Amino acid sequence: MSEDAIELSRKRSEDYDEIRSFIKGEIASFDRLVIKYKDKIFNLCYRFLTDYDDADDCAQEVFVNVYRSLKNFRFEASFSTWIFKIAVNTCRNKLVSADYRRKKKMVSLGSPVDSTGENDCVLEIGDERLSPQVQAEKEEKDKAIEEAISSLPQDQKEIVVLREIEMLSYEDISRATGLNLGTVKSKISRARQSLAEKLRGQV
Amino acid sequence: MECRDVKGLLSDYIDQVLDKQTEDLARGHLMSCKACSLELENMKAGISKIRALNQIKAPEDFLQKVKTRIQEKSEFERIVSKIFSTPKIRIPVEAVGVFVTVVLVVAVFRFINPEGKPAYYPQVNEQIISQPVKPVEYPAPRDLFKVKKPVPVVTTTENFNIQARRSDVLKNAPAQGLGIEKIATVEQDKKLLQKGGTWGSYSDGSIARTVEPVKESLADKKPEVLLTIDSAKVSLSESVAKIRAIIETLSGAVESVEIDGSGVKNIISVKIPTITYARFIRELSRIGTAQVGVFSVKLQEKYLFLKVEIAVSQ
């Protein structure tokens, strides 16, 4: 067994222990799971929704859903795959919710329209909470990359975020999104081609 | 392998998920094709840039916010469930089983026999029904459940006071084939007195008038049920009282009692709930009267109208 596989197995086992403990009534176990996964889930939500407040709200909702469903956890998949699946679904629900659409419409009024017409989500560039400690130059680069990701169709964006940012395996992406492995591969391939095109010479 | 094919495989090539043979072919092409090689580098660079993006971290108070939200939701759900919850009543499984069985049996019975006729419903002689001996005034459906006090028609003058016994009309009534009906007290029926109708009075003060007796002759008809006890010594009045008691138990009603002048035979018109027919016959067989014949008259709603002829040994 490779070192990565051993590390993965150890993490999975740790998570399982916390879940069993939570099921027995140890609430602190849930707190530890939140602390362990909050940044990953928050980042995922942010990349999906491209808005800090929406990401905050959505990530909280993800953990509320986890709290309510944890007693039914079946110890078949890893906890990380399971929570990513919940996160993807929660983000999808958020994206189609009436409130979110209304808000995006209002934000987009003063924003330049994307030439492809696919860019429904406009990044909040002026939000100082985005990355307050990052240097201006890095911010500029990140902004261009984020815009390129945002310009992808929603289904490709999901796959790119899960693969390139959250570093999930194809199998885990397949479980988290409910798509079959072949579809995941073809979507990631198209998204990478599109991103390579958009980012060529830009940064 | 063509450039077009290789471009489609670049993503899988980077992630090393191609099978060995395809990977070798792709690698061979990439080593010889500058355009595809550049495409590969571009894609790798794009991936690296995305992977180098800063991770957006959750706020410091994130855990607290999650806990507050869970608490708020739980509180809200507790209130909602309290409002809409149904009272918790424990019903034993056995009781539910019995209830379901009863409902099923009734449903099946209704399906098989929608008119509610029991399997032991008597074979009614159509001739008797189509040619009733005497039309009888049956109560309206809404009165079916009211126990109607029967109005007996008597043909004896034994209980009459002197005045009545002296009345030729009343005295001769039985001989003329008339019955005498006890209808009311003198005070209650002054109209009858004022009209100067044919009347007499009983010793208890109630008045009587002559009436056409119910000329029902069941003699030439065969009863559906005939019960006989050769050695029976039960009197007519005892038999009538017993039948009244049975009818009362079965939630039926005695319509009338026709007393035969001979003193050996009475005919009682009764109505009983149809489903109690078998029990009625069973009870009749126990009263000990010498002879009991049961004739069915008609079926109306859920009631069976019968005439019960009782006779004692002479």
How much is the average pLDDT of chain A?
80
> Radius of gyration of chain B over alpha carbons?
47 Å
Order of helices and strands of chain A: HHHHHHHHH
Q: Identify the quaternary structure here.
A: heterodimer
Shape of chain B: rod-shaped
Salient structural properties:
heterodimer, A: 203 residues, mainly alpha, Rna Polymerase Sigma Factor, Chain: A, globular, B: 314 residues, alpha+beta, 4 domains, four-stranded antiparallel β-sheet, rod-shaped
Describe the structure.
- The complex is a heterodimer of chains A (203) and B (314).
- By secondary structure, chain A is an all-alpha fold.
- Chain A has one domain (3-199): Rna Polymerase Sigma Factor, Chain: A, CATH 1.10.1740.
- Chain A is built from nine helices and no strands.
- Chain A has helices spanning 3-23, 27-49, 52-69, 79-96, 98-108, 136-150, 154-165, 170-177, 181-199.
- In chain A, helix 2 (27-49) packs across helix 4 (79-96) and helix 7 (154-165) packs across helix 9.
- The longest helix of chain A is centred in the first third of the chain and has 23 residues, at 27-49.
- Mean pLDDT of chain A is 80; it is low at 108-130.
- Helix content of chain B is 41%, strand content 18%.
- Chain B has a five-stranded antiparallel β-sheet, covered by helices on one side.
- The longest helix of chain B has 23 residues, at 62-84.
- Chain B folds into four domains: 3-51, no CATH class; 62-119, no CATH class; 126-148 and 217-311, no CATH class; 156-211, no CATH class.
- Mean pLDDT of chain B is 74; it is low at 124-151.
- Chain B has helices spanning 3-15, 20-32, 34-51, 62-84, 93-112, 126-130, 162-166, 168-172, 190-194, 236-249, 277-284; strands at 153-154, 179-185, 200-201, 206-211, 225-228, 253-259, 265-273, 291-300, 303-311.
- By secondary structure, chain B is of the alpha+beta class.
- Chains A and B meet through helix 2, helix 3, helix 6, helix 7 and helix 9 of A and helix 1, helix 3 and helix 4 of B.
